[in-house]
Amino acid sequence: MSERRLEAVVIGPGNPGLLKIKFGRGRVTFVKDVLAARIPPELRIPNSGFVALVSGRDFVGVEPLGEVWIAIEDRIRTILNSEWDPLGIAHPDDDEYDGYIAGILSLLMRGQSAEVLAAHLRSIEVERMGLSQSPPAKLIAVAEALRSIRLPNE
Known about the structure:
The chain is α+β, with helices and mostly antiparallel strands. Helices cover about 35% and strands about 25% of the residues. It has helices at about 65-85, 100-110, 115-130, 135-145, and strands at about 5-15, 20-25, 30-35, 50-55, 60. A 5-stranded antiparallel beta sheet has the order 3-2-1-4-5, with helices on one face. Helix 1 (about 65-85) runs antiparallel to helix 4.
């Protein structure tokens, strides 16, 4: 399962040695107990906010450049919802295609070309969603929009 970044807030103490943490925002949230030792001491206070790296619903760690990565994932989400949207149902801030953000981000981080990104989107449409592929020019345009996102190491 791929890792993703979620807003997180310490709700308070859980069972001994654990902190109860709320992950996500808006309609898509969940609460989970996390080993307190895995959270930096300055973030162990109730209502402390941070960005968590998670795999599925498992806490992986605290993302040091959290706000930067949240903004990047929000930009990817907006492009997928407003420019790609093969189902024709998304609004700019919907989580409909969030399951694809990590794979796209991975391709962007490796500096893949617009053609590779377009092929990835086409694969999602055809193999995962069972749809007809979007016109190639649309996929390239979406891929170029994705490639225009500045990553922290650039």
